[in-house]
Design a protein that fits this description.
Layout: E1 2-6, E2 9-17, E3 20-25, H1 36-51, E4 57-62, E5 66-68, H2 73-82, H3 85-103, E6 109-113, E7 116-118, H4 120-123, E8 130-133, E9 138-140, H5 154-158, H6 165-172, E10 176-177, H7 178-184, E11 189-190, H8 196-204, H9 211-221, H10 236-243, H11 248-258, H12 265-276, H13 279-292, H14 297-313, H15 319-329, H16 347-352
Parallel strand pairs: 3-4, 4-6, 5-7, 6-8, 7-9, 8-11
Antiparallel strand pairs: 1-2, 2-3, 9-10
Helix pairs in contact: 1-3, 2-3, 3-14, 6-13, 8-9, 10-11, 11-12, 13-14
Length: 381
Amino acid sequence: MASPATGDSDQVLVEANGSTRTLVLNRPKQLNALSSAMVTGLLKCFTSYEEENTVKLLIVKGKGRAFCAGGDVAEVAQSINNDTWKYGADFFHTEFLLNYIIATYSKPQVSLLTGIVMGGGAGVSIHGRFRVATGNTVFAMPETALGLFPDIGASYFLSRLPGFYGEYVGLTGARLDGAEMLACGLATHFVPLNRMPLLEESLKKVDTSDPFAICGIIDQFSQQPSVKGSSAMNRMEIINRCFSKRTVEEIISALEQEAPSVADKLVTAAIQSLRKASPTSLKISLASIREGRLQTVGECLRREYRMVCHVMRGDFSRDFFEGCRAILVDKDRNPKWMPRTLDQVHDGVVAKYFSKVDDPQWEDLNLPTRSSHGRRIVPKL
């Protein structure tokens, strides 16, 4: 039987089977977008189960056709408009703490990534030890189209993907399928959709926290899928050539130089995505991923928390609120970014996003001392 994770919300359900606890994200109509109640409920579960000796394995999955479509940013934006930027800061504070606990968790977590996995959905799965993709998995970090940036510790895991694939995924919001997730290391396994229920039943009988034993069980159901011919994974030479450039302007210029000689939808789609995204978001996203290459997961989350607080406050740009309006509220899909062009977003402004917030109510993200420093991303190329 599934029961609510906390007394006041049924948005996260818990199924207990022996030593296994299954956490079910339960907002199917909202594609399991993470509300404040869900983030708080998940944090309570992860914290308490780490202390309970009888719990040895956590499974995380979504109800309905999505794993999790991200954080409920529309709720955050609305609350800030009605109240104060502190609401948004508190939401992200709790979410980033949850991401850190997951990234450094002492017990194995298996995330069953059926359907959509975006933004905050990546935060509660990619940092965990086992990420099982399948035939209908759709992964993306679409934040630059919303006036945000890939947060939830994404600068940690995107910067560790092969070559400059992380820059490509993070800046363009490109959608990856399950085979691509496995190939680049975002997923640890690929299990066909019709075998996922069998895998879940096997995992519920587990009575160990030994990651090798858990991996052995998942391996029994796994396949090595072929990446489609049109996949970006088969264009790594172009991606590395273009997305290794120092600035967003140079990346776009390099892609435009490739376009005539490469009859390739990938290049055209990448240019279109970059042209439509928030210029401010693109610049802070690139800087964030580059910085993430040299940082631990905790350092990435602390820096991203500073960045997101500046975004919530609208200190240097209000693109986040305009993006939410255009994409999520009015749905005219025609955001009016300010500044409008990349050359108007100066390096000095980008650097300010990484600085402490000048407000007596604000404090840095304080993370507990943990023994681990985050999972390794291992490509299956």
